[in-house]
Amino acid sequence: MSEVAVAVWNSAARKYVNIDYRRVMVRKSLDEICHYVELEIPESERNLVHKHGIIQVRYLSKYITESRDAYAGKYGYHPVTTVYIDYIDEETQKDTHGIVVTGRSAARDIIDSKWSGTILGQPTLLQILRQIAGEFDFKEKDVICLPTTAGDITKTVFSFSWENESPWAKLLTVADAQGLIITSNQLGGLYIEQPARSACNWGFAIEEGVNVRHPRRSESGMEQYHEYIVNCCNKVGKAIDNTCPNKRKLTINLSEFIIDQEKLNRRAKTEMLRRREDRVVCTLSGWGLTEAQIQRLGGTYHKEIFWEVNLLIPVKLPSCKVNANMLISQVEYTAEKSAFSCDVTLVKPEAYR
After folding, report:
1. H helices of 114-222, where?
2. Within the chain, which residues score under 50 in pLDDT?
3. What's the distance, CA 261 to chain centroid?
4. How crowded is residue 151: how many other Cβ atoms within 10 Å of its Cβ?
5. CA-CA distance, 340 to 6, in Å (whole number)?
6. Contacts for 333 with CB less than 8 Å, ≥ 6 apart
7. Lesser CB count within 10 Å: N end or C end of the chain?
């Protein structure tokens, strides 16, 4: 039987300590670099959580082969996410005292900070990201490319500087120009990878009537535009969305680095595709592979067992007229003591390629 556990880092003991909880929610999204955690705890656990403290949400199973010492050999565990605490909110109503803790991945410190800098020497994107993240105590092993066997998959960047701002937006723009994405990982580090990562035949699939009952289709035109204009280095990239029959325009100004016309047009097109793409949301029991599927893996080292963003998986949803490989763009995991489930958001992979 699998379980969800929550642990907090005890800096004095130099180890994680399990805490009791009432409810935990974890959200991961391709459109939000940081993972987000919302945790409700009883009053008895209040003295264990502090702002800027570290929370790790874990998935326990007797078939997970790593980290078995932490639970006396009964379970192994995989971290689902590791975040730093942003807020601790306490509210008292009549006879109840509610405590809600929220946190984000370590990349929050890069995103929230504003300063100026220049990186010279024509480094690769990976080298730039490691240098910037290193200012916030990320180690080199915390910032890597996927797959790990491929080494540095990023390309040279000829100019990279920023002034009185976070460099994060420019990092994402450079990554997009190279056909890559940047995401937080389960331990709080950063991955650079290509969009639409293969699920490697681990068993991930969504099928109506098998592991999902009522898929929901979501269409939104609120953030959709007819014309997308991207300006950079005296060049202009454009994309037209004929499915948005108004005259709304979105202009994006890029600066401080060199980009060719083809990549500029691609930037406009990917922005258009992401904003117009319809989404399908499926509620699934569990947070990933079933116990039987995990057992069949024969070991879980370097194997994915959760529904994760950027996985490309087969999807069969007759009620939504979907029978194709689709990309997971967001996952929202929820757990209470008695049950846990997740909402998986699916889009066409072209929106991120």
Report:
1. 125-134, 168-177
2. none
3. 29
4. 10
5. 13
6. 24, 25, 26, 27, 57, 80, 287, 306, 307, 340, 341, 342
7. N
Amino acid 156: pLDDT:
94
Task: List alpha helices for 19-167, DSSP H.
Answer: 108-112, 125-134
Spatial distance between the Cα atoms of 306 and 80, rounded to a whole number of angstroms: 8
Give the per-residue pLDDT at 107: 97
Q: What is the DSSP letter of 3?
A: E
Residues 6+ apart with CB under 8 A from 23: 39, 40, 334, 335, 336
Q: Residue 219 corresponds to which tokens in the numbers above?
A: 């269409």
Query: pLDDT tens-digit profile of 101-159?
Result: 999 999 999 999 999 999 999 999 999 999 999 999 999 999 999 988 889 999 999 88
pTM over 0.70: yes
DSSP label of 96: E
Distance between CA atoms of residues 261 and 269, nearest Å:
12
- Tokens representing 315? 């999807």
Helix (H) / strand (E) element for 227: namely: strand 227-232
CB 311 within 8 A of CB 327: yes
Residue 255 has what pLDDT?
63
> What is the model's pLDDT at position 69?
74
